[in-house]
Each structure stands twice: as structure tokens, then as C-alpha cells.
Design a protein that fits this description.
This protein is mostly helical and 93 residues long. The protein starts with a helix and ends with a helix.
Length: 93
């Protein structure tokens, strides 16, 4: 009986050592996958922020071009009586 008990103890110890290594490997893989997922998410957020900034800058550029070509704003020197028209145009934009 002692022989069987010793054999079972040896098998249990070997299984414990093997499972500890597998669990450690699984833990490392889980941490790596988490880091990769977080990295991918941060890249997506950064690209989204860049896209929003790019679109806003483009829209502001279009606004500046429009104002530069609007006769209420672009006439130089200022014509007496035109100030009211320019003010109304700026208020409606």
C-alpha cells in the first residue's frame, strides 16, 4: 500500500510541476494579448484623433478661403456704408 501511495504522490508532484509551468505560460500569453489589445486600441484612438483634427483644420481653411473671397470682407480699403453689411455677414456665418 505504501508503494502505491508513494507512486500516486510522485505522479501528483510531477503533474503539479507540469501544470505550474503550463499555467505560467498561459499567464504570460494572457498578459501579452492584453498588452497587444491595449496597444491596438491606443493606435485606433490616436488615428481617430488625427482624423478629427485634420477634418477641423480643413474646414477652418475652407472658412478662411470663403471669408477671403467674400466681397463684404475682402474689399479694401473699406467703403463707407459697407461696415453694416460686413457686420451682418459675420453675424450670419
Amino acid at each position: 500500500m505504501r508503494g502505491i501511495s508513494a507512486e500516486v504522490g510522485g505522479i501528483a508532484s510531477a503533474l503539479d510541476a507540469e501544470l505550474a509551468g503550463e499555467i505560467a505560460a498561459l499567464d504570460r500569453l494572457t498578459r501579452l494579448m492584453t498588452e497587444q489589445a491595449q496597444g491596438a486600441r491606443l493606435v485606433d484612438l490616436a488615428l481617430s484623433a488625427i482624423d478629427i483634427i485634420d477634418r477641423n483644420l480643413y474646414e477652418r481653411t475652407c472658412d478662411v478661403r470663403w471669408w477671403a473671397t467674400d466681397s463684404a470682407v475682402s474689399i479694401a480699403p473699406p467703403i463707407p456704408g459697407r461696415r453694416g453689411r460686413t457686420t451682418r455677414r459675420a453675424a450670419s456665418a
